[in-house]
Write a structure and sequence with these properties.
Largest sheet: 6 strands, parallel
Radius of gyration: 18 Å
Mean pLDDT: 96
Bound molecules: xylulose-1,5-bisphosphate, magnesium ion
Strand content: 5-15%
Number of helices: 8
Order of helices and strands: EHHHHHEHEHEHEE
Structural class: alpha/beta
Number of strands: 6
Amino acid sequence: MALSLASASALLFDVDGTIAETERDGHLIAFNRAFVECGIPWHWTNEVYGGLLKVTGGFERMQAYARQMQSEGMSIDWDEALFRRVHQRKNAGYAELLKTGGIRPRSGFVDLVQQALARGQHWGVVTTTSHENWSALWQSAIQSTASLPAPSVVVCGGDVRRKKPDPEAYELALTRLGVAASACIAIEDSRNGLVAATAAGIPTVIVRSEYFGRDDFSGAACVVDELTALLSR
Ligand code: XBP
Ligand code: MG
């Protein structure tokens, strides 16, 4: 791997799929439970969800699915307030699932952050999920397994007007950190994340994840199967 993590000023991590595999055993289960609780006649299979993940943001994902249903002649009345409630229920259910301890950081994540801190580097989080979901993951899955100092910067979906693949979230992280794009390394798992980070000028490492392993990663500085492969680089 030509890219050296050691010379970077900051490592910027995506969350879902990168820090932890949160989708299949977290968000997907919580979405389906929320649909039942709110009387929405939807059930997303693993396969359907895999396709829907091309849309970043859980609320936007529901909107995209409603449009898809409509185009297939299954008319769904899009009631914004109702779907906001569904999304809130999904997020509450996601936080409950995290408390049961079934989701853990990906192998190598904690070591990678500790290595960065030992080198005097910053670590940060740039995600399209919400602060609420990031906090739930941080408290239930990360702080409970390792004592890590909080990230120097956290940019979430609610902080930006345009979510990934738009570079806005990464640009905001660079501004808040006061660090040049070329001095950072982004660690992402999806094509959308790669496009967002590289459009902000940040060299990007891809770690393959459950749903995005076969995405087109051209433009990535390198692609690895696990975060452990980045240790000592
Ligand atoms: C992942 C996402 C998120 C989660 C759900 O983005 O697209 O939308 O699936 O989160 P990233 P919300 O990998 O960039 O973190 O329901 O809170 O949007
Ligand atoms: Mg991701």
